[in-house]
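ok trying again, last paste got cut off:
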Amino acid sequence: MKEKYSLDQFEYFKGRDLSHSLDSLTGILNREAIFGYLEYLVTNKKTCSFFLVDVDNFKNVNDTYGHMVGDVVITQMAEFFVNMAGGKGVVGRYGGDEFIFIFEDVEEYKDVWNIGHEVNNRIGGIVFEGIPNLSVTVSMGIARYPLNAQTSKDLMLVADKALYRAKMKGRNCFIIYLPEKHANISLKRDRDKQLTQMQLVHTMFTALTANGEDISLAINTAFKSLISYYMFDHLCIEAPNGLNHGIIYTLSNQKRFEHIHTELIDALISPAGYAGISNVSGLDDDLFEEIKKKYEEQNIKSVLYCKIAAYGENYGYIRVDACNTNRIWQNGEMALLMNAANTIGLLLHYQNKRLEDLPFVASVEAGSVE
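nice, full thing came through this time. structure:
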């Protein structure tokens, strides 16, 4: 922080010596200090909201620019968060690229939502010193005391569940913990997540190859599993003659999706056979006017396409749409869908079929609400 970090407006911090309570890199409260404040609020039964904030894909910043630049980014993020809190909330660094906000006397859903929305709206305006082309987003998990938990430990747990769901929704968003939606989320350690990714690939391949020549049944089974896990708003086969095997996530705000001609999609596809676009509004108007109009009509903000192909023959695409947020496509989910597309391509090749030969399966809603 360029100026001394003052928290005298909060009763807990009045007259308190913070010299040993500040994070050495950012100058905001360190982990021990921010949790000390949370424990004080809980012990004294003071209503609050607890934000667990994670900088999206921060490893990529370190890998691309180096750790010194990474430190600059973390420091400027801390300054942004303090300015955003505006003397109404307390900000601390949990560790690495994770931060914590605590807003005392804020518990109403609308008030908490407004804070999360403001952070998401303003964060894109940060200009990082010496890195003009870098933009950063965050994912946030939010819990409220005493509505969601009775202890500081449990409050952290439910906020962590909400953060996990925000990441699974595609990052660059916030989730306010609601027990009816998020109580059954099972948090996984990094090693367990790696195992899960391996299991997903195995499950996907098995689902697509376990039904003999019934490619249609195989696709339907696999897609329902995918949409439950990743919470995509819409997942389907985009064939030259129209949409098929569409699955719409149960909680998606958008319920109607239309065919987009594969010729329009072809122009977006990389040589590797896929296109993952987090913000379709950023596409060049002159080059992609027609497909951008299709996205606007269907309220689509992000898209992912994986080419279904085998032995030089292109059949169509697996299509994924995100409507609620600009989804940051992750390598794991893109690799899994590419694997699925390649498998479907091989099935079509060896059965001498095309996507147009598959029976039409109308779009359905599916997916767990957790």
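cool. The longest strand covers residues 313-322. Residues 207 and 222 are 6 Å apart (CA to CA).
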